[in-house]
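Fig. S4 source data, part A: sequence.
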Amino acid sequence: MKKSGLIHPYIERILRQIILKDLANKGRPHWDKPHTEAVVFWMKHLLKKINNPSLNPKVLITAAYAHDWGYASLFRQKKITSIRESIPYKKLHMKRSVEMIERLIAQRLPGYFNQPEVLNLTHIISVHDDIDKIRDDDEVLLMECDALGMLDVDRVPPTLSAKENEYFMKHSIYKLRLPRFMHSEAKKIAEELIEKRTDYYLNFYR
């Protein structure tokens, strides 16, 4: 595997074929799949910018693909129309995501991950939306990429109303996630994406 590739092409092919297809068919329309792709994009970008040899690109890129996989089929019996309605499902979706990626690795990627890597991967996923528990560099990086994927209007056309977006920015971004950003490159990108998102809503709803 070339170093610039960050992750073995076969691993990524399996992740894309299974997880992205699942999210496209069973996830929240116009959100889960493009959001996941945006998180993966920003994960790869930041891994190339951050000089920290303790970060495992294979683990973190896999976590980016799988972090919200647990939302697939989760809302089939209930239509979620606001951010607040989805909050009670956060812990459940993390638990499901962990179970699903463990099963995928066992069935389709045996030999590509050792046991410490699987434990690291599942732990990162299990806390990514439990913001108060996030401490370590890899946990923070997934949270940062998740937030960037939420903010990115170019890769994920917004589906929130102006009122819902105001709540999202106030509570999810400014109150919860942004104060816990640790990497300078992630902070810089967040500022740029926030500016773009602000312009989008000003122009779209004026």
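Fig. S4 source data, part B ends here. The chain has a mean pLDDT of 92.
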